[in-house]
Ergothioneine biosynthesis protein EgtB (Pseudoduganella armeniaca), 1664 residues
Amino acid sequence: MRMNDPGLWAARYQAVRGHTLALAAPLSAEDCGAQSMPDASPVKWHLAHTTWFFETFILEVLEPGFAPFHPAFRVLFNSYYNGVGDKHPRAQRGLLTRPSLDEVKAYRANVDGRIVALLGGLADGAARERLAALLTLGLEHEQQHQELLLTDVKHLLAQSALYPAYLERPLAAAAASPLEWVACEGGVVTVGHDGDGFCFDNELPRHRQFVEPFALASRLVTNGEYLAFIEAGGYTTPALWLAEGWDWARAQDLRQPLYWQRDEAGNWHEFTLAGLRPLDLHRPVTHVSLFEADAYAHWAGARLPTEGEWECAARAHGGLPGDVPAFAHPSEMDDADVLRQLFGHCWQWTSSSYAPYPGFKPAAGAIGEYNGKFMVNQYVLRGSSCATPAGHARVSYRNFFPAGARWQFTGIRLAR
Amino acid sequence: MRMNDPGLWAARYQAVRGHTLALAAPLSAEDCGAQSMPDASPVKWHLAHTTWFFETFILEVLEPGFAPFHPAFRVLFNSYYNGVGDKHPRAQRGLLTRPSLDEVKAYRANVDGRIVALLGGLADGAARERLAALLTLGLEHEQQHQELLLTDVKHLLAQSALYPAYLERPLAAAAASPLEWVACEGGVVTVGHDGDGFCFDNELPRHRQFVEPFALASRLVTNGEYLAFIEAGGYTTPALWLAEGWDWARAQDLRQPLYWQRDEAGNWHEFTLAGLRPLDLHRPVTHVSLFEADAYAHWAGARLPTEGEWECAARAHGGLPGDVPAFAHPSEMDDADVLRQLFGHCWQWTSSSYAPYPGFKPAAGAIGEYNGKFMVNQYVLRGSSCATPAGHARVSYRNFFPAGARWQFTGIRLAR
Amino acid sequence: MRMNDPGLWAARYQAVRGHTLALAAPLSAEDCGAQSMPDASPVKWHLAHTTWFFETFILEVLEPGFAPFHPAFRVLFNSYYNGVGDKHPRAQRGLLTRPSLDEVKAYRANVDGRIVALLGGLADGAARERLAALLTLGLEHEQQHQELLLTDVKHLLAQSALYPAYLERPLAAAAASPLEWVACEGGVVTVGHDGDGFCFDNELPRHRQFVEPFALASRLVTNGEYLAFIEAGGYTTPALWLAEGWDWARAQDLRQPLYWQRDEAGNWHEFTLAGLRPLDLHRPVTHVSLFEADAYAHWAGARLPTEGEWECAARAHGGLPGDVPAFAHPSEMDDADVLRQLFGHCWQWTSSSYAPYPGFKPAAGAIGEYNGKFMVNQYVLRGSSCATPAGHARVSYRNFFPAGARWQFTGIRLAR
Amino acid sequence: MRMNDPGLWAARYQAVRGHTLALAAPLSAEDCGAQSMPDASPVKWHLAHTTWFFETFILEVLEPGFAPFHPAFRVLFNSYYNGVGDKHPRAQRGLLTRPSLDEVKAYRANVDGRIVALLGGLADGAARERLAALLTLGLEHEQQHQELLLTDVKHLLAQSALYPAYLERPLAAAAASPLEWVACEGGVVTVGHDGDGFCFDNELPRHRQFVEPFALASRLVTNGEYLAFIEAGGYTTPALWLAEGWDWARAQDLRQPLYWQRDEAGNWHEFTLAGLRPLDLHRPVTHVSLFEADAYAHWAGARLPTEGEWECAARAHGGLPGDVPAFAHPSEMDDADVLRQLFGHCWQWTSSSYAPYPGFKPAAGAIGEYNGKFMVNQYVLRGSSCATPAGHARVSYRNFFPAGARWQFTGIRLAR
């Protein structure tokens, strides 16, 4: 999108920024301040860090007479940009009771006003195009944090024995479709982002891969199927597991997905953003690690797809990402395509290590730290989840997490 | 105090309980929820746990038709009483964003109302005496948590680069008195609580000890004196330190007391409950561990007193605990006695390991877990601090912490 | 090699087995017993475990009236085969002072005798072919442990301030050739083992990949080049590093490759199997992690090759593995090919995560645990090193280690 | 003992030094090199460190033209004397395969020869007296390491599933005497070393303590009595335990003393220096921590004695340490005194934290690091054990270990 109409840009900016605040609205200031593990961040920190991103990478560069909203915020809300300077320790973000939530909201309002003013004040030309590019990146970044905000607060709420709901809403029951295998021919295929729209640097360059013929499952693995794996001794059979996964699971004595629990009567429940619910056997299993996904696939006589296979099949047989995800929980609803549940339910683990595409070039400067420096010991997930904001998903999108991560909405699509 | 006038008891109960809320008043709900380290607890947890104490040990026993305010609170707000049942993990108290601060205040109000009703409803006799004893213990327990609330929130506020003050208040400057040595004869002396007033079980039985002649410093070690120790290489000279203390200090690369910091110009500052302040050389040094206190004493050609020596000297030459401590910070003010600063400034490390007095008997049941089970690998501190509530200190009082604890208002009184 | 002539098999068996003992010959029983880190194993353990492999996977299956040499050895010398049963804890292999080195040698002799007897006693047919396959795997396994024995004992000897040599031998000095870039066309290339000879399961199936045009460095990075990286601030510039690598290096305060040290006069030395030596600037840098290799490549304006690129270039432009490596240290000697130092100097880190080839199938039973279960969070190294036994290297060989491993003879070949 | 007859001194020196070698004689070089945990040291290290003590504190001071046997040994075999300089890391003593055991024996022989030569060469006077004092300290130090050598090697041998005996010797069975309570009057008693013989600095000054009347058990707690505690749920009843002890035991899932194990048929065995033996219910329980001793005492309705009580009772009612301990294991044999098993069976935990006696002064210089710097977070044990060398025990002897130590021959004597 080019910078033809600053008013449209301002509207889009305010819509995305406003959605973040709307996601925080059901939460108290107390809920927004706590950090339940080093991998997660407080909601307040998400609100502030996304604002810091606009202040640091846009206002500091383009605003005449720039002065920071608060000098200490440059350190407090820097996530991982070494090029920007010092960082507050990641594991201690939950100790920042000051600034308060209200002060962070004031910080947001201040930066938002200055961004909108900047939009109105720029003449045509290179500066305006540069602003358009940075603004787009900032808003995509904000959307990534919208998803993290939900998964992080879900993890936090799960720590309390009260099991509070983030939002009370009914979760309708339904039946899963039969699992079918969708055949793909493979050969030399093209992978990576195409077209004019935005993409992250890690989706480029578009390039060729050679893919052997394969088949992809028509839908995600369900809770019921995963429960059968558990009941067949899946968590106690080392031959099904990667060696590191086995050690990882045993060290924590894992026996089920994150957020599953069994009551004294033996009934399974699952903690959701809508509170603790009886386990719905037809919904997709979620909150499993790559290790668990791989062990399940092994047990089921299948395997995980590579990201090239996933993208190739999705381009051939999948639909487009929908517009309005229901962020409470992955559902069993079909999207009426051959490959169902590609988007809007669970991120799908692939067997592909997160690596640069041939010819990958990160951006210059601190903003180049966005993606490339994480390309080791992480695995690619494809699709999108029930927590992904509308308009953020793409068929070439590459999400990535370490093999043991479980607090995202991660699920399993089989290949063979 | 016997249970002659229930109205007086209710007034005392409400005064102590109200003081806890007053201590929390300058803090936001966010401030009250965070936990800066496993040793510290959130303010909200202090508010709830002290209420749990009255509910569990009084209402559950004495209230007709008792029903808990909330069944989950029995676990959430149990500190360490195995006899009561399960406990929420100590290091995760900061993750309890639910119940909210308002719900905890409602819990306090509910229990307070029921306690006052109980006071009014009891006939004379054994039940009333038992209530008096339990109520007294509960209020003394509440006062202990009032002090912890202040030291814990100080530790929390120190984590933010904003260095916010708990309370803005001026700290007057003044001169320290010269250090003098107060001689004591020793011999067979009597140690432990006497009289009719309340004491904890660990202050009994009153018993005899043999003490060699000794001298005790007339006042606490000052910041200026401790700075001289630092500048003389105190933190880099292993010969001054206990072996475990040396390893402890080196593992953390310690070079000054907790809350001291030096700015780029080389000037020392100290974080206080009134914010970051220039280091006042005349005030007592505080927030030092036993290891640091012992190393300082070694460097100064002296030693730490035993708790028997401290009590013996305090009984002979000290004043009584004052009534109105100024909780912002230890001061340089004299109390006009031979032994100054015994109470109301800093707890004073002794060389005595925390151990039972000969013939010590803890109470029966879960309440007997109050003191005795901690009598290993901890050291006794005597006196009281600027954060100790009025009316809580006693000459026989035995505070105790591990040798590496620094977040209490701990200071140094020399002996030789 | 088929089982036509049992006598030739017996000779080959005894030659490989004898070479392991020869490698241990310069070491005392004390040297053979110690374990310097959990990743490394004692020499004695290598001697016993390789014997356990033959006993468990051949004698236990094929020997009539099989009885174990010692029942406890089944557990003591199992490395990671869950299918075989319990294992002695990996990190405590150095505590097995019993059985003694002499007893382990007796164990070797016993098993060797029974294997040779088995060879002589089998009639033609399927059992003989099965024995041939297992024997080959056992000997290749033994050769892998020959290399580990050397790298593990090097790590151990480096722990002593005496810096003892494993073997005293002169290391001749010489000049490195200029670095040239060897261009490769890429396209759809075929990767994986071909021909009749032995390969591990992870080298199969032979399959196609699509490779963009690239160039590979004609030789390995030298100590001199790596020193320039250090002197240019390579270890203190986060922008050069993968994020996880930066954290890894800072947590250990790394500033040079493993085994490099600088004396008080500022001269660099390198600990080798021939003792502590002045750093030879013309030899290949070795004992670097993937993180360091990647940071160096980044600094040099290049990158690491993928394993597909490496194999493609080696097949087109490389020589065959030589017969007689000099195990003391990587050298600067040219092999007179376009791509030099492919084999016999340093294993070469690739950017490829260790993953199954399309259609990979591990063997059935416990022996299938050989390779597949390690295919996560490890990176592929290609080529071979100065410690690889003669006859063990192949152009399709896939070695693999975690990104932080440094105690193998690992080096850097650049691509672009 | 004064330095009247150098020949007698040389004989005593050689007898003690020779005994250390005799203790190592049943062990292989492999056995002598391994370190089973950071708290324990390899036998070879004991042999070298005790030699280092004589070289550093005597030869370096008194030998004309002193030159070290090997410069690196000054660092390698320094235990904890910061005043002497750097130290090899304690946890890595087992990695010192060089110098070899033979080289360490040569080191011993060299230093022994020079010490004996020094004895013969000194004229009368102050230097000779100083030598006598240092030699005595060195030999007492050597004897302490003789005991540690045995307890450390026992811990090492227990790591092997082969459960090898240090020495094969029969352990005769017998009956324990009934437990009786020996009453002591207490009052102002005198504690600490008296007389002319050697003592460590921590046994001085002799001083007064006030002790209330008490009774001490006539013998140690037996295996049978301790087994009753286990069977009554001792390890699963938190009310019996110190809070830190309970956490300590649960974190390791402890359910019996170190070295006890139960076979599949439910029979208890105990690993001893004579190998794995059926548990003898009449022998004293040993290898228990202070935490376990305290919990047992609590369960038995008794308590542990203070060290003042122990010494007072032992002086009044005990015998002298015997001359020839049987180092294989604590026995049930009576010593025919009122208080039995004071010496030569198990060290007896007291409730006394290890602290300086009033007026304690460590020696000047590095040798002053011997005792004083460990006087925090350790507990005093009195008596001596089956591993204590003949002539080393004293009624005033203060042994000390942390509350969780179990690998010494530690046992329980009750008080009340």
In short: Residues 6-157 of chain D form a domain with the Four Helix Bundle (Hemerythrin (Met), subunit A) fold (CATH 1.20.120). The radius of gyration of chain D is 22 Å. Residues 180 and 218 of chain D are 5 Å apart (CA to CA).
